[in-house]
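User: New here, please read:
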Amino acid sequence: MRLPISTFKHDMALCGVMTLFASIELAARMIGISVGSREQLDDMVKHMAVWKMHPVVDKVFLVDQVQDALKLMQVGGHFGKICLTF
């Protein structure tokens, strides 16, 4: 699946917070990770646009299917990103 860079930038953020969103939904604890600054993200997105790179998206779930997305992640049945759409 090839995504426009603006979609990639939005969905990449969603992929990164999927576990956080699920934790909020389950009223569990929130665990975050640091993956770089906003400036580094912007630089990466620009380079990906210049070199026509795109993320590998395995599956896109609707936000109300978050449990299915988490199950897929838990069993490791994916190759690439698991994304949520709102």
The chain has a mean pLDDT of 78. The chain has three helices and two strands. The beta strands are 57-62, 81-85.
